[in-house]
Design goal:
By secondary structure, the chain is α+β, with helices and mostly antiparallel strands. It has a single domain, classed as outer membrane lipoprotein receptor (LolB), chain A (Clam), CATH 2.50.20. The protein is built from five helices and twelve strands. Strands 7-8-9-10-11-1-2-3-4-5-6-12 form a twelve-stranded mixed sheet. The longest helix is centred in the N-terminal third of the chain and has 12 residues. The two termini are 18 Å apart.
Length: 238
């Protein structure tokens, strides 16, 4: 059971991206009711291309960090697994997921190699980045937001009750690990703060990002892993 849930975590984990739910947004105060109404009307009429441009412009730095809450659900068994921790993203393709609950775990990739480390079990699983995160799998687009246009057909579904934008993504290339992805984008910061991934079996991984902190620089060593002594090494099935 744990292995199946781990596979979901690897294939549909982690962002989201991009989030800025707690990130201060830049805003201009309206000088009149008329100006406020005009601004809201313009925001409502944003085209998909204009929205994507604003999203891409929100990630000009090397990367970012964020807290995350993740809920993975196996549809057939109606079993959910809750997890939380802190994540780092760096362009292109570098990610570090530090799980704190329910147990300590690290998912680290330098864009080529992948390590899944469980310190309490003294065990590390080793694989390749493309096998588990290639073509935008596993929310890897969070480490390079430009992948959205390159790898997915995108539909602007409208806005939620809070006025944030809703996007529906479908992979350009058929992929059993990703049937569709739903993104929620902040109307103030244009960060993606929620990512919901569904695979072909109807299993769902929902990730919410908070306390995002843009990073001008991030050391590449944060996305590398040196296997500790007396650690069991397992090759991931690719």
């Amino acid at each position: 059971m744990k292995k199946k849930i781990l596979n979901i975590l690897l294939h549909a984990v982690l962002l989201v991206v991009v989030v800025g739910i707690a990130q201060p947004g830049f805003c201009l105060k309206a000088t009149s009711v008329e100006k406020t109404e005009t601004t809201e009307r313009e925001e409502t009429q944003l085209t998909l291309n204009a929205l994507l441009e604003k999203i891409e412009a929100s990630y000009p730095v090397a990367g970012f960090s964020a807290d995350f809450i993740q809920v993975s659900t196996l549809k057939a068994m109606q079993i959910s697994d809750n997890a939380s921790g802190r994540a780092l993203f760096k362009r292109p393709g570098m990610m570090r997921w530090e799980y704190e609950k329910p147990e300590r775990q690290q998912i680290i990739t330098d864009g080529k190699n992948l390590w899944v480390y469980r310190p309490d079990d003294k065990q590390v699983s080793v694989g390749s980045f493309p096998a588990f995160f290639g073509d935008g799998k596993g929310a890897s687009f969070l480490s390079d937001i430009n992948l959205l246009r390159k790898k997915f057909h995108i539909i602007l579904m409208g806005r939620n009750d809070g006025g944030d934008y809703l996007l529906h993504l479908k992979p350009m290339e058929p992929n059993p690990d990703i049937a569709q992805i739903q993104l929620t984008v902040s109307k103030k910061t244009f960060f993606v703060y929620q990512v919901v991934t569904l695979n072909s079996y109807g299993d769902e991984t929902r990730i919410e990002l908070t306390r995002i902190e843009p990073k001008e620089t991030l050391d590449n060593e944060l996305f590398n892993f040196k296997i500790p002594e007396n650690t069991d090494v397992i090759q991931l099935n690719e």
